[in-house]
Amino acid sequence: MSGRREEILDAALAIADEHGIGKVSMRALAERVGVTPMALYRHVSDKAELLDGMVGRLLAGLLPPDAGKGRAWHERLAALGYAVRGMARRHPWAAQLLFSRPAVTPDAVRVVDLIYTALVEAGVPDREVPRLERLISTFVIGFAASEASGRFGTGSLDPRGRRGRLPEGELPGHGRLAPWLDLPWDLDTEFEADLDDLLRLIKAVAGGRD
Amino acid sequence: MSGRREEILDAALAIADEHGIGKVSMRALAERVGVTPMALYRHVSDKAELLDGMVGRLLAGLLPPDAGKGRAWHERLAALGYAVRGMARRHPWAAQLLFSRPAVTPDAVRVVDLIYTALVEAGVPDREVPRLERLISTFVIGFAASEASGRFGTGSLDPRGRRGRLPEGELPGHGRLAPWLDLPWDLDTEFEADLDDLLRLIKAVAGGRD
DNA sequence: TGTATACGTCTACACTGTATACGCGTGAGT
DNA sequence: ACTCACGCGTATACAGTGTAGACGTATACA
């Protein structure tokens, strides 16, 4: 019932994708739907709930259709990681929102369950599974949010310029690593390496003590 | 010169801490400083720059006074992690903002340098140091942001209620882990365990291939 | 003395989310 | 067939937002 709500959410998604989340106002959204701003409140209680609905809709598209049946746990986890990052690149506005609300929608719970079963299959002790799920998802969402919001970018200053602002010798680390810092780096391979390390971490927790 | 800017930033910090970041408006800030809203623009070009200045000020208070001299690299890293989390707990509004801008201020660069030198000392190959720095800081900030914004909370539904919304058997992971999910969990010890795992990961990268 | 510069005020504009009150059509119940 | 409720949309209005532009004034230096 009430496919109108979905229509509204889709319109909001379209605005966010085209002009950024900042342009999603009740007035702009209403105009896009072809209706008065106040009419939206019949289908959405709040602007906050509207935003929640938007990320919910994205999460729904995140689930692998076949749940990755037949593939190993580490392949399923990696695929999920790539899916999240891909989503964040397509919808840069969404990453930040993922941090703001717990995973309460049915789709979000399903995603969490995928991670749970993968970790169990990896041999992680039951007691540690929820914690590791939070560790992994926190990193993946954090990476996506950082990428989307420019935290990984150099800002207006390039690395050399940034270092130059401080007295020589106060940044021994930067000094030593200078050759690597000036290189342009590729976020694709970086994310891959990060996931690799995290999978290794999971194996360590699985195979380690008790 | 111009200690007025610092005065303004401090006033903004005070408002954010007392009433939340949402109450930091140019008008409210101006009133607190005892001045007209437009007067603020003599010391701050934007509201965005104001917010940047606020997190910059927090980062300045993050540096260990002695830079942790004499302590092992893993102690220094852990101390930094705890410091970030502590900051996020004292100023819940700040965590989200940390994601939005690259670390360009001198203080931020200094913090990054601390991590660099710790990783180098741990034996991480130079080439991998910047990546691992981003991995660690992304997780730590992500954890802090999640905690501050309620992502780790249960929301309005408790875990049992959340599961109940979906047909039985569709959440095998939740089913198996039910005993652990219903337990209240302690974020202090969780963060500790996470840092432990990350330090182990660093050692693995340091001691591993090439 | 003149002038530049730092600092502040006042007014105004274009927005924002949303409370409140009202109107209109449709479908169910008596 | 008459009423009533309800879903859905509209109109108006209010309090709040960031900030552009024009205008003052006081201090410092030529």
TrEMBL record, chains A, B:
Source organism superkingdom: Bacteria
Domain (HTH tetR-type) ranges: 2-62
InterPro entries named among the record's database cross-references: Homeodomain-like_sf, HTH-type_TetR-like_transc_reg, HTH_TetR, Repressor_TetR_C, Tet_transcr_reg_TetR-rel_C_sf
One Pfam family matching this protein: TetR_C_1
GO biological process, one term: negative regulation of DNA-templated transcription
Keywords: DNA-binding, Transcription, Transcription regulation
Ranges annotated as DNA-binding: 25-44
One example GO MF annotation: transcription cis-regulatory region binding
Keyword Transcription: yes
Membrane among keywords: no
UniProt protein name: TetR/AcrR family transcriptional regulator
